[in-house]
Design goal:
This protein is an alpha/beta fold and 171 residues long. 34% of the residues lie in helices and 24% in strands. Strands 1-2-3-4-5-6-7 form a 7-stranded mixed sheet. Helix 4 links the parallel strand 2 and strand 3. The relative contact order is 0.11.
Length: 171
């Protein structure tokens, strides 16, 4: 019978910050081979530059096993939808298949049908930071949303922010 997670293991996996492509393989192995370990992750932050493209399929597999994820932040620098639409589409389709229920999301994705489908599934979402300002989120979606921040990226990490109330972005 497996042992319950120790406090040190639980705190080790509670927040995952992925910034180096060299760590994706070992993280993938650790989380996809242990549903118990994957269930410990409540915060997942990824700031990826252009070198992450070859390992994004592994990142997508990681996202699918994070059943208790509450906070997700994905920044794909140098991998905008304009430069690699297939990369973004694959990640958006993966998010739509995830079972976690977020309370906060930060993502630089632009308007997309798959992303709106994902948002509709996130009924616990309270805080949303998204790229672009031309959003049409249905009125009945995101019933617990309290805070929305949209931004335009002028370069990775530099944002022109615009904070809006939930009702001002709904149709």
């Amino acid at each position: 019978m497996p042992h319950p997670p120790t406090r040190s293991r639980a705190s080790l996996y509670r927040e995952v910050n992925l910034q180096h492509v060299s760590r994706v393989g070992s993280l993938h192995q650790a989380l996809t081979n242990s549903s118990r370990r994957a269930s410990l992750v409540s915060v997942f932050r990824m700031q990826a530059n252009g070198t992450f493209a070859p390992v994004l399929p592994l990142v997508n597999e990681i996202l699918l096993v994070l059943t208790n994820l509450a906070h997700l932040s994905i920044t794909l620098c140098g991998q905008s939808q304009l430069h690699n639409p297939a990369l973004y589409t694959t990640m958006l389709r993966t998010l739509a298949r995830c079972t976690f229920k977020l309370t906060s999301l930060k993502s630089g994705v632009v308007r997309d049908r798959d992303f709106v489908h994902f948002l509709r599934q996130q009924t616990r979402l309270e805080s949303l930071h998204i790229g672009g300002s031309d959003w049409d989120i249905p009125q009945d979606a995101l019933p617990n949303l309290k805070y929305v921040k949209t931004y335009q990226a002028s370069s990775c990490g530099t944002y022109e922010a615009l904070t809006r109330s939930h009702t001002s972005i709904c149709s």
